[in-house]
């Protein structure tokens, strides 16, 4: 089960929504729905930095860099479903929605349904809480199920898994907090993909 928690406030300024006497106005109370962001960072930091807790994500390097910009050094990045998707099908589409339809036979809510596109596109903070809650929780739930059940079982049949011994070597960034390793894995996947494409071109030529 996944949950979405809206945040409000400014980083490093927890009292931004208070007046001279530390009380909030009626308008501010209505706008500040959810959890104050500095309080949220304080509470989530020990969890994300806990080496005993595995983290799974879709393109989790992005989340890692975002969290680091907030002073959080994510530990034990266990599984990245996007990298796993590249290994299983280097030439396919590796967006979360596409991977969900392919491996889970489930079509999730597309982000365009919430924010639109082109000139009519809005920012996520303008999306009603009930809609964005469903979208965000579904996104996390799908990624968790892909990484925890579908992908790991499929990766056991790949040559890279048999060479590495377990999925951490190919999608978990076994040497955690080393950006060189994260980048190297990405480059390795692209190289493998291009080798496959070149072989296909030669065989058809």
CATH class: Alpha Beta
Q: Please state the CA-atom Rg, rounded to the nearest Å.
A: 20 Å
The shape is globular
Beta-strand share of residues: 5-15%
Low-confidence stretches: 161-178
Helix content: 40-55%
CATH architecture: 2-Layer Sandwich
Strand arrangement, major sheet: 1-2
Number of strands: 4
Biggest β-sheet, characterized?
2 strands, parallel
Structure class: mainly alpha
| Average pLDDT score | 75
Helix tally? 10
Order of helices and strands: EHEHEHEHHHHHHH
Oligomer: single chain
Q: What's the N-to-C terminus distance?
A: 50 Å
CATH overall fold name: Nucleotidyltransferase, domain 5
Tally of structural domains: 1
CATH superfamily: Ribonuclease H-like superfamily/Ribonuclease H
Give structural notes.
With 205 residues, the chain is mainly alpha-helical. It has a single domain (53-204), classed as Nucleotidyltransferase, domain 5. 54% of the residues lie in helices and 5% in strands. A two-stranded parallel sheet has the order 1-2. The protein has a two-stranded parallel ribbon with strand order 3-4. Helix 1 (26-31) links the parallel strand 1 (7-8) and strand 2. The termini are far apart.
Helix and strand topology:
Blueprint: E1 7-8, H1 26-31, E2 35-36, H2 37-48, E3 55-57, H3 60-69, E4 77-80, H4 81-88, H5 96-103, H6 112-115, H7 129-155, H8 159-164, H9 168-171, H10 179-204
Parallel strand pairs: 1-2, 3-4
Helix pairs in contact: 4-7, 5-7
